[in-house]
Amino acid sequence: xxxxxxxxxxxxxxxxxxxxxxxxxxxxxxxxxxxxxxxxxxxxxxxxxxxxxxxxxxxxxxxxxxxxxxxxxxxxxxxxxxxxxxxxxxxxxxxxxxxxxxxxxxxxxxxxxxxxxxxxxxxxxxxxxxxxxxxxxxxxxxxxxxxxxxxxxxxxxxxxxxxxxxxxxxxxxxxxxxxxxxxxxxxxxxxxxxxxxxxxxxxxxxxxxxxxxxxxxxxxxxxxxxxxxxxxxxxxxxxxxxxxxxxxxxxxxxxxxxxxxxxxxxxxxxxxxxxxxxxxxxxxxxxxxxxxxxxxxxxxxxxxxxxxxxxxxxxxxxxxxxxxxxxxxxxxxxxxxxxxxxxxxxxxxxxxxxxxxxxxxxxxxxxxxxxxxxxxxxxxxxxxxxxxxxxxxxxxxxxxxxxxxxxxxxxxxxxxxxxxxxxxxxxxxxxxxxxxxxxxxxxxxxxxxxxxxxxxxxxxxxxxxxxxxxxxxxxxxxxxxxxxxxxxxxxxxxxxxxxxxxxxxxxxxxxxxxxxxxxxxxxxxxxxxxxxxxxxxxxxxxxxxxxxxxxxxxxxxxxxxxxxxxxxxxxxxxxxxxxxxxxxxxxxxxxxxxxxxxxxxxxxxxxxxxxxxxxxxxxxxxxxxxxxxxxxxxxxxxxxxxxxxxxxxxxxxxxxxxxxxxxxxxxxxxxxxxxxxxxxxxxxxxxxxxxxxxxxxxxxxxxxxxxxxxxxxxxxxxxxxxxxxxxxxxxxxxxxxxxxxxxxxxxxxxxxxxxxxxxxxxxxxxxxxxxxxxxxxxxxxxxxxxxxxxxxxxxxxxxxxxxxxxxxxxxxxxxxxxxxxxxxxxxxx
Length: 829
What we know:
Belongs to the glycogen phosphorylase family. The chain is of the alpha/beta class. The protein has a 9-stranded mixed beta sheet. A 6-stranded parallel beta sheet has the order 19-18-17-20-21-22, sandwiched between helices. A 3-stranded antiparallel beta sheet has the order 12-14-13.
């Protein structure tokens, strides 16, 4: 029997096979429990059953992967390789079960062992492979690549501890190691034969070879081994999958016996410990030189192992290295993988003997780059001194790229030394390498992630590059995966929508627009409201478990969950909460709608102000939640350790989505899309994808306030003085003085003086005071609307109905057709 016949015999790939039933699944589960988990099914724990179920569905994905790889080897088409430092894939089991259409049969099979699938799913730990929106977007993109059968895979790092697990102790964020691998990861396949040597430090020897060509060798390096782990990811009811290959760092030498024999046990394993630091944590703190060096090494470790692997696959399936761009497109998700540009050039020149000009031309036909930020401080730059020490060959290559690039700039702008300085890859003043410039110069396509972001990016910090290479820049608005963010995480609403308009929307999100007429159906609105109420109860239970705070599900659930950052303006949200608190205490608003405000997100360990904001949120919450004068009209809670699995409960249970970033600073956002898809109304600024959500849902179904990005720019340029807003608004003044004077922390009155001073005398760079009055007024509009529940429910239905544009499938299809130039695989079912 051939392998294809064996796979066909054992596979569950065809869902209409007559032998594919609960009895067959039961036999498979027993087999995995005994042979792979090593437990007696009669006494197996819930976690044991979790492993058995994962091994079972992982086996199905593995069969598909083998078929798919055979197809790709035969077709020899172009493939996309997605490089990202983050992948927030969350829990994977239920999503995969739904993708494989196994939900009913698997539940039936497990019931014969007196096991419940939902309980088993809850055993899964979120994979700690990311931090925020960047990582969640990357995970959605891999899901969609599989959904639409595009030939692609992802590369990342197998972080042992992720970023950190957040707890709140005495109101403060405390970081703990995120031990997500403590029980192992049954989804992954370790690939012991897939490993690559990654080099650091050393020196460069340049000479002329026997043919008189200039040659450079990188010698005396300190090396680390990259070991591959594969995680297959399913497509929704398709025969295709995508693979996420993660790299784990290993020492080239685990143990030095000579040190051990001398009794120096620490030194004996020093190389192992130092080497394996590279895949310990996501984004090591780079506030010190040692931290910066570790982070640079981590990024190079990631791109070097990934490119070597891509090269190896290309060599197995193709002959001429000059055909590389016809078979390979490498996508850089933000600047973290930017070292891939000089690394590919190094491989072409040093390993394949290509001349620099030819190699550089091949590179520029291979890379595409997504920019994710408008914050100059978030654009990576590396000190030349550190790069010279860690990656001397790459610095040498970057100088050569820059020389070639600046020659082009000189020809385009003769005699303009100012533009030469602006466009150089090297900042001669700070002595740093500008990695965003490297990505732009080395890529044939550069995109932003929302229409406003792309416009500002091209008109602002990359204006010179846009003018020089206008055809390179484009926009690809972000999207979300409706399979996870509605079909899976909100089963009640998903079932109602399927009952009302069918299930076409599950694979074609724009079909949700058929819901729009039902917004005028009173019966449908009641059902929609009842489902939201049930989801609010579920969210309130989560909050109670994690914080001990009891929320009233009949109150408005007002939610802001995202990374804690000044530009995202959690502090403005908090200023509104304090304003409400003052009004309740003063009795000036007797008809106020009860409101539960939920805030969540992590602050970077070295970001002092963000951590102070978290502490202030908790201090304010402690005061409000324990004040009997509030009479249930207001509660505030900080939900710790926000992650994907919590988001799957938060998004369906939320009613008001806070998207209040400083205009011109949020590239896109995807949380705004997830909230709206689940029927939450947005209060937001004209920033990022909020603008496109506004265009889709209409002015009457969203709450927009404040200035535009252009107005924010003009305000700063004209000499913004926050004290003017402070002096003219008595309510704002009272709010800030309460924070300044320690009303919420009487044991330490000066605790938040730095926050106060930063707003009043530090320039208020993020324009909180300028937007405060408009925000408070908009919140009054929110409250008036919420008082009319029938109107609110109608608006909520229309938000869900008009989210079709924001499917990740549209995003990936745009990339595939316009940027990557890849076509779907024609796999047989």
